[in-house]
Design goal:
The complex is a heterodimer of chains A (about 300) and B (about 120). Chain A has eight helices and 19 strands. Chain A is α/β, with parallel strands linked by helices. The chains are: A alpha/beta (about 300), B alpha+beta (about 120).
């Protein structure tokens, strides 16, 4: 079969994918295609309505949504083909890329492939927390998407497990939307996220952070009714009633597409952004992905 | 620096998170000018830019429109401002950068749309 051949196919149109494509384009790579599964570019930035982006790269503090809009412009000003609402489901060692869209299934081919598929949140299941399986348990990023994109409230009496940045951001977000955030539990003896996020998301709203505290059990039949947690310094356990538990317990690079296709990086296949390793700041993702893009020929 | 009146803050201007100390006139621990100004302001009255969303909904369209306040506003006014923002009804989906007036506030601030 002869498939349409690109010089570069970028899988994922978030900050890493956009930057990789833009970098390649500016160094003279001609036929570039970005495949994005959502209806628009921007990735997770589109649900990040809070500030803290762009200070390094654009020398200006912006929201995630502003950062996405600004970088999208860079992509659209270049000769880069963008296909949205396209889900890539297979890559072959010959660098054929198969995707599905509303129009059907297609295969295209590339000299180089950059995987910019971002990362996934660790879930309650990965922590093997004992208890029931009621509704009201979400990852922090899912809750962020529900509130900021779909205007849905995940719940009203909230406990956050893990002190990752998204959990801290969501502690404030849920509070502003009228929820009661009781506290943040962290099993380690130190904060996982950035200190500035603890200051402006927890301290500003007097939400306690309990270090060296462990979630022991989630209870509730249809909906979360309570959690049991333990102070690991004293061994003392407590129960608090709540209707929602948000997990912010780490991110995992999303590499399933490679793994499922049975191929590894090298030989014209690259990983970048959070698909490579998880970054604290999008500015660094942009810089690294641009650099990778420029090195493609 | 007068030790008795000294307050400690963690700078939130950038991810470096400098540990600042100030007595209201002098600042120590800041690695940049913005950090110094942050500490002095924090000493008097903390200011924050508020970010939230406004719901736009009609028969055919639905969108949560992301917004931020045009300037940093007093932290203790946060919920008052959020209540005002919740009262806003949009006639159409505004574009990024568009301004939306905020009424009934002593602070001279408006909202800026931050998303497309």
């Amino acid at each position: 079969m002869n498939y349409k051949k690109y010089d570069l196919i970028v899988i994922g149109g978030g900050p890493a994918g956009m930057a990789a494509a833009a970098g390649a384009s500016s160094s003279g790579v001609k036929d570039i295609l970005i495949l994005e599964r959502m209806p628009g570019l921007g990735g997770i930035l589109n649900q990040c309505i809070h500030l803290g982006f762009g200070l390094e790269y654009f020398k200006k503090e912006m929201t995630g949504t502003e950062y996405a809009a600004r970088y999208k412009k860079i992509v659209y000003d270049k000769d880069i083909e963008v296909k949205t609402s396209c889900l890539v489901h297979k890559i072959t060692p010959e660098k054929n890329v198969s995707f599905v869209s509303r129009d059907g299934e297609f295969t295209v081919s590339a000299k180089n492939i950059i995987m910019a598929t971002g990362c996934r949140e660790r879930t309650r299941e990965m922590l093997t927390v004992p208890g029931t399986r009621p509704s009201g348990i979400f990852t922090a990023g899912l809750a962020q998407e529900m509130v900021n994109i779909y205007g849905l409230m995940p719940g009203h009496e909230v406990v956050i497990v893990g002190s990752g940045d998204i959990g801290l951001i969501m502690a404030r977000r849920m509070t502003l939307e009228g929820a009661k955030v009781h506290f943040v539990l962290e099993i380690l003896d130190h904060l996982s996220g950035l200190i500035r996020n603890k200051v402006q998301c927890l301290d500003d709203f007097k939400i306690p952070l309990y270090l060296e505290h462990e979630l022991m059990e989630i209870t509730g039949k249809n909906r979360v009714e309570a959690i049991r947690y333990r102070d690991n310094k004293t061994g003392r356990e407590k129960v608090i009633s709540c209707d929602t538990v948000l997990f912010s317990v780490g991110l995992i690079p999303e590499q399933d597409l490679l793994i499922d296709s049975g191929i590894t990086t090298g030989n014209g296949i690259f990983l970048t952004g959070n698909a490579d390793y998880v970054h604290d700041l999008v500015d660094n993702v942009t810089k690294e992905a641009e650099k990778l893009g420029r090195s493609i020929n | 620096m007068d030790n008795k009146k000294k307050k400690k803050f963690t700078c939130i201007i950038c991810p470096k998170s400098c540990e600042l100390k100030t007595d209201g006139t002098e600042v120590s621990g800041a690695k940049c000018k913005r950090g110094k100004l942050f500490a002095l302001q924090e000493f008097v009255s903390p200011l924050r830019v508020i970010t939230t969303t406004i719901r736009y909904e009609n028969k055919n369209n639905f969108k949560m429109v992301p917004v931020k306040t045009s300037r940093a506003v007093p932290l203790n006014k946060t919920f008052e401002i959020i209540r005002q923002i919740k009262k806003i009804r949009l006639q159409k989906i505004p574009g990024i950068g568009e301004k939306i007036p905020l009424k009934n506030l002593s602070e001279k601030t408006e909202l800026i749309v931050t998303g497309e």
